[in-house]
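Appendix C reproduces, verbatim, an entry submitted by the partner laboratory led by Prof. M.T., so that reviewers can inspect both the input and the predicted structure.
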Amino acid sequence: MDLATFLKGKNLFTNEECETIEAAFVSEVIQKGSIIREVNRFSNRLLFIESGLIRTFYFQDGNDITHFFFDENHFIAPINSIIYNKTERYNW
């Protein structure tokens, strides 16, 4: 589902507010396996997942450990960077 449809379906915003929010986002296609956010980096980018999954993960003792999956119609944000002014603890 695209962002505009998602926002309008929540009935929390006026049409004008939905258009303003949607205008602040840039649509992009991210290839499977791409790193979109690296550990120990700052970011202020809020993402809305229209389709697919985003996995957060870290490395421990040489192993790739999955932390969490975010799926379609959800927002994901680098909370450590935005709120706490710290680098991210996980790769995305």
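The helical segments are 3-10, 15-23, 79-84. Additional entries are available on request from the coordinating office.
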